[in-house]
């Protein structure tokens, strides 16, 4: 049976304290049907894989009852988790109060309903949850129409004014969040712009979709989505200085409003991650290092890591950027020591991490091994990416995986299949529409290597270095050097030293 059964995964995600709480909660319910789902819970907790036969033979549940029993258990586990203080948030509290107010209204207890709504609205407004606040005001208007008092006239005016203001804020938030999501989707699907036509299209789209706004009138959440939209746009057009600027604005929202770290921990973690990614792309080593140290200190506080989801994200962002620091410093051999630790953490968080992020780690492992001149191990991780046919990775990363694989095969001396590998890589890049000038020149160079006499190879490397160097800051071609530092590799061949020593030297002389 499938390992990915939804109920089975939910049971396996529970902590010891959550399981204990569920058993106490379920014990209070009583009844024969409850005994069935408690038995179902117990057997699922013991199983290593979902197995229907084991469930049916170890419980009194009949085959035709299993589907309903699973659905009942799933819902009761969620109710139990909802009652756990660790899972409760301001948003959940407001929704609960909204439900209570509706029940009181339906019972004709209008005054009590209004008191509950007013309290809930205060919490929603404090947390700038304008969508919920708007829903509360709309219900207040309904209740007020039933609860007649002399103050109704002024109260009605206040509610109408509040409803209009919240409606405008909700509309602005909707426009900004829609734009942010559209741009993020474009970034994941198409990656960076590759020519003037792409740039013009995204520029026209962004300017047309960006709503008119006054920054001082925007709330914290509206500003957050505004900065996210600008960040995605900056990434797409490869303006990484602007990416850094807007990522910093994103993180600053949490710095000046620290309560947001608990109410929106995922956004905080993502903001710091994109700040680090931007600093990595502009090669600002000093600020990258200090930001990474700050991030690690924040995680050690554990004040906003509320659940398994935020803990998994924290692992992802911390370790991906730890590896990036080794790249910036050129400490590839030192970085290899981190790989066993990362693999253990991946296993710990495996049910919360998608295949895409695992493969991103594999690409970074391969890059570390390449920089440390351990080409066979580099190829091992690259082949794990290439052989993963179910992968929905970004196309640009898939393409550079194959290019790095070519170079690693050349360096490892696996020349016998190099020509076949070059052809398959060329076809793959053509199919993905990812064959840019830098890649064309590089693949042509590798294809012709067998025709170059040994005493002429160094000059050939110098010639290619000269040709590619001009593209290092090209608006569309520069991304070729983000995933694979071809320039440093060529310099290592010319100077007859390791790639690690070349990048270390640059780290001290060039990077800020």
How do the helices and strands line up, and which of them pair or pack?
Blueprint: H1 6-13, H2 16-27, H3 32-46, H4 52-58, H5 63-83, H6 90-106, H7 110-126, H8 130-144, H9 152-190, H10 196-209, H11 220-236, H12 240-256, H13 260-263, H14 265-281, H15 285-301, H16 308-329, H17 332-335, H18 339-348, H19 355-371, H20 375-386, H21 395-411, H22 418-431, H23 437-448, H24 457-469, H25 480-483, H26 486-495, H27 499-509
Helix pairs in contact: 2-5, 3-5, 6-7, 6-8, 7-8, 8-9, 9-11, 11-12, 12-14, 14-15, 14-16, 15-16, 16-19, 19-20, 19-21, 20-21, 21-22, 22-23, 23-24, 24-26, 26-27
Q: What low-confidence regions span 5 or more consecutive residues with pLDDT below 50?
A: none
- Main beta sheet: strand number and arrangement? none
Beta percentage is under 5%
| Structural class computed from helices and strand pairing | mainly alpha
Number of strands: 0
Shape: globular
Radius of gyration: 28 Å
Sketch the topology as an H/E string, one letter per element: HHHHHHHHHHHHHHHHHHHHHHHHHHH
């Amino acid at each position: 049976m499938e390992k990915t059964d939804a109920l089975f995964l939910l049971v396996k995600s529970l902590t010891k304290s959550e399981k204990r709480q569920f058993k106490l909660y379920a014990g209070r319910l009583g009844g024969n049907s409850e005994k069935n789902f408690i038995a179902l819970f117990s057997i699922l907790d013991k199983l290593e894989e979902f197995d229907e036969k084991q469930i049916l033979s170890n419980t009194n549940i009949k085959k035709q009852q299993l589907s309903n029993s699973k659905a009942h258990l799933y819902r009761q586990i969620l109710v139990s988790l909802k009652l756990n203080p660790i899972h409760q948030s301001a948003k959940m509290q407001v929704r609960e109060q909204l439900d209570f107010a509706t029940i009181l209204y339906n019972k004709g207890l209008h005054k009590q309903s209004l008191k509950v709504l007013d309290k809930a609205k205060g919490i929603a407004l404090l947390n700038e949850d304008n969508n919920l606040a708007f829903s509360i005001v709309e219900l207040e208007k309904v209740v007020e129409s039933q609860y007649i008092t002399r103050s109704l006239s002024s109260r009605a005016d206040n509610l109408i004014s509040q409803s209009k203001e919240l409606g405008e804020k909700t509309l602005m938030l909707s426009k900004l969040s829609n734009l942010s999501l559209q741009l993020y989707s474009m970034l994941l699907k198409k990656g960076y712009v590759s020519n003037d036509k792409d740039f013009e299209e995204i520029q026209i789209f962004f300017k047309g979709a960006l709503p008119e706004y006054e920054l001082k009138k925007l709330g914290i959440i509206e500003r957050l989505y505004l900065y996210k939209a600008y960040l995605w746009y900056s990434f797409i057009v490869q303006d990484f200085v602007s990416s850094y600027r807007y990522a910093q604005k994103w993180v600053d929202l949490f710095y000046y409003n620290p309560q947001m770290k608990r109410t929106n921990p995922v956004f905080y973690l993502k903001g710091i991650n994109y700040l680090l990614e931007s600093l990595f792309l502009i090669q600002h080593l000093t600020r990258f290092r200090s930001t990474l140290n700050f991030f690690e200190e924040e995680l050690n506080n554990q004040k906003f890591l509320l659940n398994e989801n935020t803990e998994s994200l924290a692992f992802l962002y911390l370790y991906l950027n730890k590896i990036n620091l080794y790249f910036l410093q050129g400490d590839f051999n030192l970085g290899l020591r981190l790989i066993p630790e990362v693999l253990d953490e991946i296993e710990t968080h495996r049910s919360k991490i998608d295949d895409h992020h695992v493969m991103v780690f594999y690409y970074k492992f391969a890059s570390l091994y390449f920089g440390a001149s351990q080409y066979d191990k580099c190829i091992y991780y690259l082949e794990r990416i290439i052989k993963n046919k179910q992968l929905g990775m970004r196309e640009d990363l898939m393409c550079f995986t194959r290019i790095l694989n070519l170079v690693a095969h050349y360096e490892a001396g696996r020349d016998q299949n190099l020509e076949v590998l070059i052809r398959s890589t060329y076809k793959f890049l053509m199919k993905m529409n990812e064959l840019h000038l830098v890649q064309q020149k590089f693949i042509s160079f590798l294809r012709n290597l067998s025709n170059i006499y040994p005493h002429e190879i160094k000059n050939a490397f110098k010639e290619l270095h000269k040709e590619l160097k001009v593209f290092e800051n090209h608006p569309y071609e520069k991304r070729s050097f983000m995933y694979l530092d071809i320039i440093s590799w060529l310099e290592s061949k010319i100077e007859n030293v390791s790639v690690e020593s070349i990048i270390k030297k640059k780290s001290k002389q060039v990077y800020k």
